[in-house]
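Schema walk-through. Below, the input block comes first and the output block second. Nothing else is stored per chain. Lengths vary across the set, and this one has 169 residues.
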Amino acid sequence: MRILVVEDEPDLAETVAEGLRGEGMAVDVCHDGDTGLEMATVHDYDVVVLDRDLPVLHGDQVCLRIAEDPGVQARVLMLTAAGGLEDRVDGLDLGADDYLAKPFAYLELVARVRALGRRARPAAPPTLSRAGLVLDTTRRTASRDGRALSLSPRSWGCWRSCCARTVRR
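--- output ---
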């Protein structure tokens, strides 16, 4: 999963980024809204963790522009000190997909980023294919060059585990 953290407080930005990297995510960081908007529209992120109170371009404007840009597929998680009910409602109305107030629990941040990341792109098809071999993991069927293969439950398990390591989705 690819994440952009837009946070004007460098220590917090790096702490969040390091933690998300430790969870196996690729994370970029910037510290102002203008740079954040540029990065979000140029690169293919799954989730943008966005502070509202940013220099140069306010986080609200960044959120609005991301939400309005049909070329940006990233989900927006606002992470900000403005945690009142009106603030949360305003942030969501601006186009944020989720809202988390500071101070926050790190485990909750990770869970919310993962949840948004799962929804950032359409789900991959449930098939594995390579060199004419096709495994449909939902229907539990297999074919080779268009001809159905008959696999026992044990054989299916072996094929699936072997192919999951070598076949690209």
